[in-house]
């Protein structure tokens, strides 16, 4: 890794990802209103943490920027699609996202459903572009990893368990399982995609996945804490939704202090998983601490 | 191809596809209610015409059943996801599909959104399973073709143009473009997936794609004619929706007789595209006539 400060590296990754997404979306001309709604859902917001996870993991293996940028952007498209669908009236019914109207508010619910579908589908197309990722085995494994992380064995399953948690009491195990799927799966997938791009051996890939699991846990618990402690203004989205929707979270079960303890433990375990990587993985250590300490 | 009658071959393909989907869905245990909703949307209905297109095309090249079955099932999952989302209250607001309640009616709209998302995502996972499709280049190309056919350069774009057609008058060119994307793209993709599995050369693949374009056109025009001539009972879904929703179709522009002429022409063109294939492609010739003459 370069020695540039963390914030500089993160901002540079976000800028590259934004440019990639802009160019990619500009190429979609079949239905202009659809592309506009996709732009609304995918551009101009977000810290692009998931692409940065792909990048930080891939750079451990000397992967070329062109390849990790494409993989990171595909992962971000999946993340953005999930937000577009999550915000729908039939789902969370959210009006505000990253400080601007959600896609269904800016357009209409039908177009938001289709824009989400299109972002998801296009992500898989990006991963199979031989101009972007040279090796076909790598392309195929990236698609498989993204499908596992985002589909019915991953993120979507977590969303269903999350909705079920609104009407039944979840115990701590249920909550950990739900969160590992809902938020954790895509974060883990990001680190895993870097390992796939790097053709890492089984043990190395497993160590990075273990780091990713703890990074996902840290991210989610920090999010739950912010939901009760932050302001709407700082967060750029509606806060207090968990309590309002009667959602079970680690915070509702353990309180803020109890949640902070679990958060600290997750950060320690994540950093421990990186023991074999030495100084090269410093950016991943900083990243998991960043997840834990973020204020928005 | 075997010499079994068309109907027998079609039914056998449907049975194999159903069995494949049942087994695949049984393997998804993370969120049981999600899997149930996916089953509701994917199992027990449909003639599985798209998997049969993959099979009929792939068998021109001696592709193994294991491979074309997986590719056909993946295509069918995408078709089913599109129906699940199409039926949503914010989209077509349909209550009946294949003679049973739509997924959102049987469950709820949120679960229908997520079940659709999950079917789409899982389709790409199926295509990248090395146990099902041996060659990585083939897996990657199948994903790319399916993403192009179903995403913002294909089916989803067509759905957006179709919705726009409810509030503005479409001319004949607009309607052909919309239909080529909305219905045609997946049908074309089915034939194309067979060619990809068979590692067909560029010219052979192009000839099959041309056939697929005309097969898609024939399928859609026949559908539009049925919407004004068939009964709800025969069709297993609500009819007369096009007129009710003020949708522009070839039938609304040219009348039933005019539409039948265009349909006949599409069948001829599709059959002409198969000239280089001789007797091997007979099943594809029967298939496009079946599209044109179907009564439900």
Automatic annotation (TrEMBL), chains A, B:
One of its GO terms (molecular function) is prenyltransferase activity. It comes from the Bacteria. GO terms for cellular component: cytoplasm. InterPro entries: Isoprenoid_synthase_dom_sf, Polyprenyl_synt, Polyprenyl_synt_CS, Prenyl_diphosphate_synthase. Keywords: Isoprene biosynthesis, Magnesium, Metal-binding, Transferase. Its cofactor is Mg(2+). One of its GO terms (biological process) is terpenoid biosynthetic process. The keyword Transferase applies. Transmembrane segments: none annotated. Belongs to the FPP/GGPP synthase family. This is Probable farnesyl diphosphate synthase. It comes from Pelagibacterium luteolum.
């Amino acid at each position: 890794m370069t020695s540039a400060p963390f914030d500089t590296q993160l901002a540079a990754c976000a800028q590259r990802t934004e440019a990639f997404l802009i160019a990619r979306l500009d190429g979609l001309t079949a239905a202009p209103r659809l592309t506009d709604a996709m732009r609304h859902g995918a551009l101009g917001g977000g810290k692009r943490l998931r692409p940065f996870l792909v990048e930080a993991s891939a750079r451990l293996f000397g992967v070329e920027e062109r390849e990790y940028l494409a993989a990171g952007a595909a992962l971000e498209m999946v993340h953005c699609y999930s937000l577009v669908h999550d915000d729908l009236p039939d789902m969370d019914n959210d009006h505000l996202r990253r400080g601007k109207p959600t896609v269904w508010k800016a357009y209409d619910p039908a177009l938001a459903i289709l824009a989400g579908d299109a972002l998801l589908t296009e992500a898989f197309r990006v991963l199979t572009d031989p101009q972007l990722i040279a090796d076909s085995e790598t392309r195929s494994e990236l698609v498989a990893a993204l499908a596992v992380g985002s589909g019915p064995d991953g993120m979507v399953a977590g969303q269903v368990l999350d909705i079920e948690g609104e009407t039944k009491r979840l115990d701590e195990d249920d909550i950990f399982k739900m969160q590992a799927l809902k938020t954790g799966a895509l974060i883990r997938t990001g680190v895993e995609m870097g390992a796939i791009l790097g053709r890492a051996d089984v043990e190395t890939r497993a160590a990075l996945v273990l780091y990713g699991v703890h990074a996902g846990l840290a991210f989610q618990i920090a999010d739950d804490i912010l939901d009760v402690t932050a302001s709407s203004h700082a967060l750029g989205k509606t806060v207090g939704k968990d309590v309002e929707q009667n959602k079970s979270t680690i915070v509702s079960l353990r309180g803020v202090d109890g949640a902070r303890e679990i958060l600290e433990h997750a950060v320690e375990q994540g950093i421990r998983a990186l023991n074999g990587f030495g100084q090269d993985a410093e950016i991943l250590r900083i990243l998991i601490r960043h997840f834990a300490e973020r204020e928005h």
